[in-house]
Amino acid sequence: MSRANGMSWTLDEWFVVALARTIRDGEVVFHGFGSPCAQVAMHVARRTHARSSLLVEGATYAVNPDPVFIPPTSNDLALHRDAVYRMRFEEFFDAAARGAVDRMFLSGGQIDGYGSTNVTAIGRGGADNGRGSRPKVKLGGGGGGCNISATIGALTLWTTRHRGGRTLVADLDFLTDIGHRTRAGTRAELGYTGGGPQWLVTELGMFDYGPDGHARLRALFPDVTVDQVRAATGFELRVALEPWLLHPPGIAELATLRTVDPLRVRQLEFAPDELKREFHLDNGSACAC
What we know:
The protein is globular. Helix 1 (11-21) crosses helix 2 and helix 2 (36-47) packs across helix 7. It is of the alpha+beta class and 289 residues long. It has a single domain, classed as Glutaconate Coenzyme A-transferase, CATH 3.40.1080.10. It starts with a strand and ends with a strand. The longest helix is centred in the first third of the chain and has 12 residues, at 36-47. The strands form six sheets. A seven-stranded mixed β-sheet has the order 4-3-7-12-15-16-17, covered by helices on one side. Strands 1-2-18-19 form a four-stranded antiparallel β-sheet. Strands 5-6 form a two-stranded antiparallel sheet. The protein is 20% helix and 23% strand.
């Protein structure tokens, strides 16, 4: 997209670029099954600022593949193209257990203030995983995330369903993946070696995690207010804004994103109204169009 006096881009594009920027050059990074935004972000990072990163595909365990495009499913042979290696399932989990994986992307039907996630069940009777009650909704399950979230170097969390008010919650209905603190204790108290959540990107803004492991709102998209974020957030909203964390996408980032994801599989994660959000760069600042 372009305008006479600058560039334009959509929320889904800015969102994926924000995810990509959480990857540091040289990191070994991994995404789980059915994670189009994270998957596209990893390929964007590897083709822009993180060229020395090592990318592990979430369903095929292909290492540094070079797909012509991102397919609609993460379990597709297109994602094997020109891979330097194809890991076995147990190889990857061994690597994660010994701390050889630097970053993993995680999402969830629920995310609490300390970055723990629920991808197991909604309405099961509380964060104590109480027995005897039946969930209202059965989710896809952790697929091993509960293990590797404890040992991987850093986690980037994301959700595109923040606005509805049911995703960022004070208490999880079921604890699947480990954040900085659970009812049983902190990571250090539980003996987990991984660094835990570092970033959380939502369709409203960007969070990091403070010294006590609790989420802090650090940046907003230009068409969002702090009050809107507070109304949609179930846990205590701590605010320490640093707008530069969500600076607009660059020309190279947008060009790479559009080349890697011509089918726009990233948009599968967004509600239709969110895809209508468009931004325009003029005179060095971004505004909502």
